[in-house]
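Hey, quick one: can you model this chain's 3D structure?
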Amino acid sequence: MMETQSFDLIVIGTGSGASTAAGKCAASGWKVAQIDDMPFGGTCALRGCDPKKVLVGAADLVDWNRRMNGKGIRSNAAIDWKDLMKYKRSFTEPVPSSREKGMEKAGITPFHGQARFVDESTLKVGNFELTGEYILIATGARPAPLPIEGFEYLATSTDFLELDELPKKLVFVGGGYISFEFAFVSALAGSEVHIIHRGERPLEGFDADMVDILLEKAKELGIRIYLNTEVQSVDKEGNGFVVTGSQNGTSEKIRGDLVVHGAGRIPNIDRLDIDKGNVDHGKHGILVNEYLQSVSNPRVYAAGDAAATQGKPLTPVGGFESRIFAANLVDGNHRKAEYPAQPTVVYTIPALASVGLTQRQAEDQGLRFEVHTNRMDSWYSYRRINESHAAYKTIIEKDTGKIIGAHILGTKAEEIINLFTVAINNGLTSDDLKNMIYSYPTHSSDIPYML
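Sure thing. Here's the predicted structure for all 451 residues.
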């Protein structure tokens, strides 16, 4: 028997794009429901950023240990995968229960199950029919379907993060964030690693020169990367798999114990029956206006990876959009989704970070700019830890001296890039950063020499 309930706001999803808005609206006295067909907590906390960074931290320690061998360090650190996964689960396992208790404490009604639109204001979840004055879709993203024979054999990033044992030989399909981050972790944990990428270069959103230096490190770790290679099929062979790829008409077979999907993600909206809700959507998600409101159904808003916006598919962007949505609901549409420069990091070892324009983008826009770039291997900050793959590139607008792009490869890149983000978003010039007094010796104190 169907039970009907009414709410001021129904939120689909429990990640960063959803929970901020749900909490703020509940705190304003709204009657709020929150739905998820997966464990409560969202991708970042359970299946993405947080657990991934635990694994990356262990791999980073191994790499640092190896670099310092013979330079004051004698021991050989190694990853115990089972222990590492047990430690990882100490972060992820408490999340669903904690999130649900937090919802209930905030007065939010939780629902477990797949939400589907019945009409423009009604959703069905299991035996419940929920009517909402407003609905927020913040369901994140999922691995993109690929036209590969044997696609069903590909493991996902979620599967990788739940491995009780790390396979001896892994093949990653696609040359983006997921493949590279897990490839570096796996290689430093002792596995043989292959990455197959259909394009001319991997990590296409990052500066090409920085990526080339990162590839030197990958090669040093024994990671084999196949470029301009189209994966045609994945076949089961005994306890393992055979990946067949085509490069310039030549077929190549790569064997692995596990094949991991790292070839992109798409908005996770296909199971919502959104057409019944009169919610227009496209390749990049729900079509929204500047207030994050559906262009076809004013009751519906969208945020995070499920929305087609200028925001990058990053957890902080989901939270940023969720705050905008909440402000517009509580006080009426008044806050537009205007995006500042958004830093992004691929957590390889070392990390590669970027914010603002790449050199190619600045050229395409016809800007007058100067480029400062160099290796940092011999700089004290990196020589101290015997890091041999560190570099930077900064892009400065000639007429104003303003910083319009920064790209950092090396230890603490993910921290340094935040300072460049502050500079870009506040219109600071290279002189502004050069004239600051920094704590020393730190990686941040290298910034003036990057300008």
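One thing worth noting: Residues 350-450 form a domain with the Enolase-like; domain 1 fold (CATH 3.30.390.30).
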